[in-house]
Specification:
The chain has three helices and five strands; from the N terminus they run E-H-H-H-E-E-E-E. With 138 residues, it is α+β, with helices and mostly antiparallel strands. The N and C termini lie close together (6 Å).
Length: 138
């Protein structure tokens, strides 16, 4: 994405990222995070959760994917942070759940950089808050 083609208010179209129980198991192996609330319904419920939940870092990564796909270069992300607002509950069925992420450029900075504010929801609930990335554009 070229800096001169981006204005404050430029929207990044929403994308939906599906998560299923298999996604969580794969993420456990890739990340080394085998916390049982991410794959065992009995343990998740005994911890007071409604069901198995997605890893927060997996949810955060899916939101970042919207930005890296838009920019075209994962290395262009200079800063990225979120606050976890609600867990993403992943049911034990073939459909799973979707995380919907959208973005908007809210500021242009020196050095061909832009601030992108993100929204991430699942089941109509905000799952990430204060999600913000600073990217360097071409």
């Amino acid at each position: 994405m070229a800096f001169d083609q981006v204005e404050v208010g430029t929207e990044i179209p929403a994308q939906r990222y599906p998560l299923q129980r298999l996604t969580l198991v794969r993420y456990c192996g890739a990340s080394g995070d085998f916390n049982t609330i991410h794959w065992n319904e009995r343990i998740a419920k005994s911890a007071g959760l409604p069901d198995v939940i997605a890893h927060g870092m997996l949810t955060m990564a899916e939101a970042a994917r919207l930005v890296t796909d838009w920019v075209g270069d994962p290395g262009a992300v200079e800063e990225y942070g979120v606050r976890f607002a609600k867990p993403v509950v992943v049911p034990d069925d073939d459909a799973g759940v979707e995380v919907e992420v959208a973005g908007q450029v809210t500021e242009k900075l020196d050095g061909n950089r832009a601030v992108v504010e993100l929204s991430a929801t699942s089941g109509g609930e905000e799952v990430l808050a204060q999600a913000r990335a600073v990217v360097r554009l071409a």
